[in-house]
Amino acid sequence: MDVFVGEAKGLPIGQRDFFLEVLRQWCLTRREVRPVQPQLVQILAPFTCELLAPVLDALFQTFEACLGRPMVSGHEKAMTADELDLVALLNGSLSSSSRFPQSRTEVILQVALCSTQVMVVMSRHPKGRSRGKTARN
Questions:
Q1: pLDDT at residue 129 is higher than 60
Q2: Could you tell me if 23 and 36 are in contact, meaning their C-beta atoms sit under 8 angstroms apart?
Q3: pTM of the full predicted structure?
Q4: Under 8 Å between Cβ of 64 and 70
């Protein structure tokens, strides 16, 4: 699944860079003990996908719960192991049960991953439209 592809002000945004910007801002905001959802809304607004703020917040929190520690975020182009794992979980190349076999919250992570995938699709096809079809079709 190509999780985050969008355009802001006519410039294409790569899925990896966009996702990392959102994830890293979430980590930074959490470390500063500030509310994260308003910050995520601000980042997502130019892409008209503000509705992803709560679902991403829940996903990142659940991922941290499975890790049993705060997520380690990278800098610039280098991705951390945590970032790589989360991307792999989202695109399906890694399963949550294999990454967190002993975690009691792994099932919740599965739900958060599915919710994120559904909401990403919904944010791409607003107002009841899905892949060129109207809600009535």
A1: no
A2: no
A3: 0.81
A4: yes
